[in-house]
Design a protein that fits this description.
The complex is a heterodimer of chains A (about 475) and B (about 500).
Chain A lengths: L6 H5 L16 H10 L29 H12 L9 E2 L12 H7 L2 H4 L11 H18 L3 E2 L6 H15 L4 E5 L4 H10 L6 E5 L10 H9 L3 E8 L10 H8 L4 E5 L1 H4 L12 E5 L15 E5 L12 E5 L5 E5 L6 H4 L12 H38 L4 E2 L10 E6 L4 H10 L2 E2 L2 E2 L14 E5 L6 H21 L1
Parallel strand pairs in A: 1-13, 3-4, 3-5, 5-6, 6-7
Antiparallel strand pairs in A: 2-8, 7-8, 9-10, 11-12, 12-15, 14-15
Helix pairs in contact in A: 4-13, 6-13, 7-8, 9-10, 13-15, 14-15
Chain B lengths: L12 H4 L33 H13 L21 H7 L2 H4 L11 H18 L3 E3 L5 H18 L8 E5 L5 H8 L3 E5 L1 E2 L2 E2 L1 H7 L4 E7 L11 H10 L3 E6 L11 H4 L3 E4 L19 E3 L11 E5 L2 E5 L16 H36 L15 E5 L1 H5 L4 H10 L6 E2 L8 E5 L6 H16 L2 H6 L11 H7 L4 H5 L6 H7 L14
Parallel strand pairs in B: 2-3, 2-6, 6-7, 7-8
Antiparallel strand pairs in B: 1-9, 4-5, 8-9, 10-11, 12-14, 13-14
The chains are: A alpha/beta (about 475), B alpha/beta (about 500).
Chain lengths: ~475, ~500
């Protein structure tokens, strides 16, 4: 017979059965014993230091549920979602939809990893430390730089931290960013710069290729006071800018930040090799489902000479007292818990578990698997572009620069939003609009949609997109 | 309890296998790669089998303390049990297979979870508006300070405010976030472990933008003079900021809103039992008074009739602090925690957390001195100063505790206590766990100085040389292969074998 150790729980068992988990241990008699031993008379004595007039009434958060009821309640809410897997989905941007090998979640489900804290005691936490060292090594390899940190919150905040690093290593108050940078990243960058005198200036793009205007960059640098420039690969339009390898020559000593996609980096020349001083990016595609946009993970790599100015946790290799290889958090004198207001960042909790997912994903798939995946996505993107490009009323791809997994489509009649809504009614999620949704703000010119291919897209889905797009454009014409 | 952690001489990934001799997919064959951007050297990363990957990371996991293996009494970190059911819920297809850029009509469930959790947290904090967006506590602090900046920019009549004040016991993230937001920080000395009200009154001025406070503070002491503190700060025209790291002590008893705070951040990965993940992901929820509500990040989630939607028309908002809407996977877990406990359960959480701290503190009263007042909230601080006379220090005690299969407390913080040990035993630790912890600390303190100074002995590695790590800076596998420094001793001891050699134990 089950023994209910919780008086409180017994009464709330509408469903009964084996759903009485014990998240708080012991029964009230044990608690009283502890209380008495500690020298208190009543539970209320524990809060004698909180003035009476500060006490709150009922919170009104409802009565507790059983585990079974919790599951049922949340499942009922989640049922109101329509997962992208129920559509032919071409959503992407910095947050790609990928097939995740089961091995990734098998490792992430190890509670020794997920239920641990930041590895402050290296002797007890070699597992996470070694995994983070391996993650840093992979990021170094992908980016072509010397050192990486152990993860940041997401690609946007990593770009913000990169801006702050530039400020530490170069004078000036002007920071150059592409006009085509996604609006969310611009907004996060502005917020990361908010405490400092920083003027953002947008590098225009060529209306045909979508690539950055390097002559403009040359003039901007000549005008002086530029402390950094940021470029992205693929860019905000999903395209590859062939001019990027020339940009460091133009910047000279001005630091260059490259935002890059890790899958693309598995087949592209690492930005460190063409002069990027900092490389950051969104790593969610390596090991995490989109999960409505979080958790994400930002990677961050820089040159050796700048590592003491870098943000976040960093793992280093060392020896233990017996001369064996061991790993530990290092360069902690940069960090908030030691340096306080003079720290290089305020990072405490970062995204360790996702850094682990990143390295497990990349290793499970392997370098040849990553290249094969990138090749397959690029083939599909070509087929899709060819199909959409033949539809009157759409410009696909909108820009002539080359592309890998994604590209931009321009809707020439009606709005991008209406076009996407029409596609959705035909069970196609065709991408996302590039416009800034805030009233009074504009994105890049034109009704632009970023569309991406995934492993779940085949010839059938591409045809479905094409036919839905034809119908959507047709109805837009009729409406007009 | 006899304890021994797994000790594999686990090779690094690139010591297990090598990259393919010739790439099966040459980059030249990938369409869309411009010649000048093509990777010239294939990715130097090993090709190894799935079992090798699984075995490698499973072994690594066995060389890691977690809440599920060990009592984890890190002060201010609230290492409580992460309910198993929450892990299951977060992996539901309806949660994971949802893209942030899907149209609102297809994500009503996700929006409802956000909305419901925000409403619940408004009630818990006693503040009228919540945004879940920030990714972690420190990002929440930073976002809150940007809101403070925006507020004063909007109210020029309040003057130019350049300073953020905080007690010397504040978490390091507080001054770091304030400096990042462009403020000059000023630390207020504590008196008897609490804010020195006279010092605070002398420090506040027309330059004060905010005072950042954790209550209960990092010594585990409730700042009983909070009303006078609030009055002093507000009287000078400043705002009061609540660091929610220690909210686990006061659920349903009092709240930041009740105490007079204008803006707060909460750590869902502390109070609301979402896993710490070895250092993230976290969630640094923002809560704001009516005055600061317009400045919360966009988008806000609003309910119109029965429909949920994103609201971007918030002209005073600071904008975005991260991509998408925050760490959604954690919201599900936190919401599960809120639903499961409910009103009485949340009160029980704090009652038990505070009971655990006071019980353990009482049991250790004769072992090490405890500064400040005897009644603590969810955590307490001991001083390891007397250990020095016996030839060892707090650090040694912390390492020796690992040999007992118990994680070390937070050490050398707060800095106002010499040789500090900051201990938090959340509500999920049972009487047995508490008694084991107390007995272990007593055993360690009574142990021989030699044992202590050479500890730990039962972990997967012996004491780690952190000084060497900082001096040598070997931060990636390239640094192991080609040591950045010419120090021969380390190069010889730590260098991996040539990559062609068969896998085996890591080099000594």
């Amino acid at each position: 017979m089950r023994r209910h150790r919780f008086n409180r729980r017994v009464t709330r068992h509408a469903l009964g059965g084996g759903d009485t988990p014990r998240w708080i241990p012991d029964d009230v008699d044990v608690e009283r014993e502890l209380l008495t031993k500690a020298g208190f008379h009543s539970f209320d004595d524990l809060f004698a230091d909180i003035p009476r007039n500060l006490r709150m009434g009922r919170m009104r958060v409802g009565t507790g549920l059983t585990e079974q009821e919790v599951v049922r309640t949340i499942d009922q809410i989640l049922d109101r979602n329509k997962p992208y897997s129920k559509f032919a989905s071409f959503l992407g941007g910095r947050m790609p939809i990928r097939y995740l090998p089961a091995a990734v979640d098998a490792i992430l489900s190890r509670s020794e990893f997920y239920s641990s804290y930041t590895p402050y005691q290296p002797e007890a936490s070699q597992g996470m430390l070694q995994a983070l060292f391996e993650y840093q090594s992979l990021v170094v390899e992908l980016t072509g730089l010397d050192a990486a940190d152990a993860s940041l919150y997401d690609g946007s905040s990593a770009a913000g931290e990169a801006l702050l690093l530039c400020r530490r290593i170069h004078s000036g108050d002007r920071f150059l960013i592409p006009a085509s940078l996604p609006w969310e990243e611009k907004s996060v960058l502005e917020n990361y710069a908010a405490g400092h005198p920083v003027r953002f200036e947008e590098i225009p793009y060529d209306r045909t290729t979508g690539s950055l205007d390097l002559a403009w960059v040359r003039r901007a640098v000549a005008d002086g006071d530029v402390f950094g420039a940021l470029v992205d690969l693929p860019n905000g339009f999903g395209h590859l800018d062939e001019g990027l390898p020339e940009i460091k020559g133009i910047l000279g000593s001005v630091p260059l930040v490259a935002v890059a996609d890790p899958l693309a980096l598995s087949v592209l020349e690492p930005p460190g090799a063409w002069g990027a001083d900092v490389v950051v990016g969104e790593g969610q595609g390596f090991g995490q489902p989109p999960s409505f946009g979080g958790p994400l993970v930002g990677f961050f790599a820089c040159r050796r000479e700048h590592v003491r100015f870098a943000p976040g946790r960093i793992v280093g290799a060392t020896l233990d007292a017996e001369g064996r290889r061991a790993f530990t958090l290092t360069l902690q004198t940069r960090e908030q818990h030691i340096r306080r207001s003079r720290a290089t960042s305020n990072i405490c909790t970062n995204q360790s578990l996702l850094a682990l997912a990143f390295v497990v994903y990349a290793t499970t798939v392997g370098p040849s698997g990553l290249a094969a995946l990138q090749a397959a996505l690029a083939e599909k993107a070509r087929a899709l572009a060819a199909g959409l490009g033949g539809i009157e009323g759409l410009r696909a791809p909108r820009f002539s620069a080359s592309f890998l997994s994604e590209f931009t489509v321009e809707v020439e009649r009606g709005s991008a939003r209406e076009f996407l809504d029409r596609l959705r009614s035909r069970k196609v999620l065709g991408g996302h609009p590039l416009a800034d949704p805030r009233p009074g703000r504009s994105g890049p010119d034109g009704e632009l949609v970023l569309t991406a291919t995934t492993e779940f897209v085949g010839p059938k889905e591409i045809l479905k997109f094409e036919s839905a797009a034809r119908q959507a454009i047709g109805s837009a014409r009729r409406d007009a | 309890m006899s304890f021994r952690q797994a000790r594999y001489d686990e090779p690094l990934l690139w010591e297990i296998g090598a990259p393919a001799a010739s790439p099966s997919v040459p980059t030249a064959s990938i369409p869309g790669v411009p010649g000048n951007l093509r990777r010239r050297r294939p990715l130097d990363w090993p090709e190894i089998s799935e079992l090798e990957v699984i075995r490698h990371f499973t072994r690594l996991s066995q060389m890691n303390f977690g809440i599920t293996t060990s009592t984890y009494p890190l002060g201010s970190c609230t290492m409580k049990y992460n309910p198993a059911v929450s892990e299951q819920i977060a992996r539901r297809r309806g949660a994971a297979e949802v893209h942030p850029y899907q149209p609102e009509e297809t994500v009503q469930g996700s929006l409802e979870i956000i909305w419901r959790l925000e409403k619940g947290l408004e009630k818990v904090t006693g503040l009228p508006a919540v945004s879940l967006q920030p990714a972690a506590g420190a990002q929440g602090e930073y976002a809150a300070l940007l809101m403070v900046r925006a507020y004063f920019r909007d109210h020029p009549e309040l003057g130019t405010r350049t300073e953020v004040l905080l007690p010397d016991s504040a978490h390091g993230t507080n001054p770091a976030s304030a400096a990042m937001a462009g403020y000059v920080t000023k630390e207020i000395a504590s008196k008897n472990g609490c804010v020195d009200l006279d010092a605070l009154r002398a420090a506040v001025s027309e330059r004060t933008a905010a005072f950042m406070l954790t209550n209960p503070n990092t010594g585990g002491i409730f700042e009983s003079e909070i009303e006078a503190i609030a009055k002093a700060v507000h009287g000078a025209g400043g705002l009061l900021y609540y660091d929610g790291a220690n909210l686990n002590a006061i659920l349903g008893v009092t709240s930041p809103g009740r105490m007079g705070f204008d803006v707060a951040h909460l750590n869902l990965h502390k109070t609301f039992a979402t896993p710490h993940g070895g250092g993230g992901p976290g969630a640094g929820v923002l809560a704001a008074s009516a005055k600061l509500e317009p400045y919360l990040p966009i988008p806000r989630v609003v309910k119109t009739g029965r429909r949920f939607r994103f609201e971007y028309d918030r002209p005073k908002s600071i904008g975005k602090i991260k991509t998408a809407y925050g760490n959604f996977g954690l919201y599900l877990r936190a919401y599960a925690f809120l639903l499961y406990h409910g009103e009485e359960g949340l009160k029980h959480v704090s009652r038990r957390a505070v009971l655990n701290a006071n019980y353990a503190a009482h049991e250790l009263a004769d072992t090490l001195p405890r500064p400040f007042r005897p009644l603590v909230k969810h955590e307490f601080v001991l001083s390891g100063t007397p250990l020095k006379a016996r030839g060892f220090r707090t650090l040694d005690l912390a390492k020796r505790l690992l040999d007992e299969g118990i994680h070390a407390p937070t050490v050398y913080f707060p800095s106002l206590v010499d040789e500090a040990l900051m201990i938090e035993l959340p509500e999920t630790e049972s009487r047995n766990d508490l008694d084991r912890f107390v007995a272990a600390v007593k055993r360690c303190v009574a142990d021989s100085p030699e044992q202590l100074r050479s500890a730990p002995h039962s972990t997967s590695v012996a004491r780690v040389d952190e000084v060497r790590a900082a001096r040598e800076l070997r931060l990636s596998w390239k640094d192991l292969r080609t040591p950045p420094s010419s120090e021969p001793e380390l190069a010889a001891a730590g260098a991996p074998r040539p990559r062609s050699s068969p896998p085996g134990p890591a080099p000594p």
